[in-house]
């Protein structure tokens, strides 16, 4: 009889310890789930695709010296940009399409220009020297692909 009482007493202690551990674990689980999994900050745009408030005021293409007929025709570009934006831009990606006299496109190229354009200003970009082209272009069409906002 003594053994039976001792056994039942130990079983009761074991069940109560086990129940306490389960309840404690459930409380901790609820506390962990109450915290946010991640913190999301508001994003600020940094790049504008084809900015409508940044335009090419003047574009001039001229043949650069030093090109041979076997190597192709080297050209350089002088560009002036006009900004009507209330913000400043700092890096520009220019897309240049070189066209023949009949209007067909000889080649299209992209140039990254590291130049700051203040808000409401007109800026002359440094000369852009293009790699030699296979044929002499009659004209070129320059567009601003994107521009990054200055901090």
Tell me the layout of helices and strands.
Blueprint lengths: L1 H33 L12 E3 L4 E10 L11 E9 L5 E11 L5 E13 L4 E3 L3 E2 L9 E11 L2
Question: What features would you describe in this structure?
Answer:
The chain has 151 residues and is an alpha+beta fold. The protein has 1 helix and 8 strands. It has a 4-stranded antiparallel sheet, with no helix packed on it. The longest helix has 33 residues, at 2-34.
Number of helices, where a helix is a run of at least 4 consecutive DSSP H or I residues: 1
The top level CATH class name of the largest domain: Mainly Beta
The CATH architecture term of the largest domain is Sandwich
Overall structural class, as computed from helix and strand content, comes to alpha+beta
């Amino acid at each position: 009889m003594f053994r039976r009482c001792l056994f039942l007493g130990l079983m009761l202690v074991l069940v109560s310890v086990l129940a306490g551990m389960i309840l404690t674990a459930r409380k901790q689980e609820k506390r962990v789930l109450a915290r946010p999994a991640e913190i999301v900050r508001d994003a600020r745009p940094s790049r504008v695709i084809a900015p409508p408030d940044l335009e090419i005021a003047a574009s001039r293409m001229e043949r650069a010296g030093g090109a041979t007929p076997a190597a192709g025709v080297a050209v350089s570009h002088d560009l002036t940009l006009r900004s009507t934006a209330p913000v400043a831009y700092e890096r520009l990606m220019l897309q240049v399409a070189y066209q023949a006299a009949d209007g067909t496109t000889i080649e299209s190229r992209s140039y990254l220009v590291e130049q700051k354009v203040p808000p409401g200003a007109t800026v002359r970009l440094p000369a852009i020297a293009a790699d030699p082209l296979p044929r002499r272009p009659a004209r070129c069409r320059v567009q601003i692909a994107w521009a990054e906002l200055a901090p």
